[in-house]
Amino acid sequence: MENHPKRADARDTVRVYEGQAAFFDATRPQVLFEKAWLDRFLALVPEGGQVLDIGCGTGRPIAAYLRDKGMCVTGIDAAAPMIERARRHAPEGDWRVADMRDLELGQVFDGALSWDAFFHLTAAEQRSVIPRLARHLKPGAPLLLTVGPSAGEAFGHVGTDPVYHASLSRDEYATRLAEAGLSVVSFLAEDPDCDYHSVLLARRDQAP
């Protein structure tokens, strides 16, 4: 997570993305440096599976890649201008304005991911959201998250606006996920082959 000289408030994150949607859409790299992790995730999803993209932004490049791989993608984002742009890029897609902190879609998915979104939640919010995400997963379904390399807070930026980041420790993620019925498959802090993102791949436990 990138430090920023001006502190950010977690309560401002949605507002920042609403105001910076055009900038984000214009400057978000379309080179898929996330591909290796996305492919590990997809290896755990059945062909043509239903995938939930949490914090999907404008729907590209990640949701677009998942769709190209034959997945049926539902993209959610708390910032309505991001969803508006996703609908322009892929009008046939399933795009919804929704906040993961109170997510209740009434359906379960073959996989879910939150790339560069989950880590904008506070530590307390992450603890409460993990079981909420688990309830949206079928037995055996993977969950892919970008987190921090260790417990703490950091501050990045979107355009000219500072934005808040937080993380639990690796051990606490494992504990919280286990309590929600998921097991950690892989965790790599500051992966040099993925633009130094810290990535966590977990999987919903199979039903007994």
From TrEMBL:
- What's the name of the protein? Methyltransferase domain-containing protein
Keyword Repressor assigned? no
Among InterPro entries, the record links this protein to: Methyltransf_25, SAM-dependent_MTases_sf
The molecular function terms in GO held by this entry are: methyltransferase activity
Task: Tell me the Pfam families matching this sequence.
Answer: Methyltransf_25
Q: What is the lineage of its organism?
A: Bacteria, Pseudomonadati, Pseudomonadota, Alphaproteobacteria, Rhodobacterales
Gene Ontology biological process terms, A to Z = methylation
Residue ranges annotated for the Methyltransferase domain, each copy included: 51-140
Cited SUPFAM superfamilies: S-adenosyl-L-methionine-dependent methyltransferases
**Organism, per UniProt?**
Roseivivax halotolerans
UniProt entry keywords in alphabetical sequence: Methyltransferase, Transferase
Tell me which Gene3D superfamilies the record gives.
Vaccinia Virus protein VP39 (3.40.50.150)
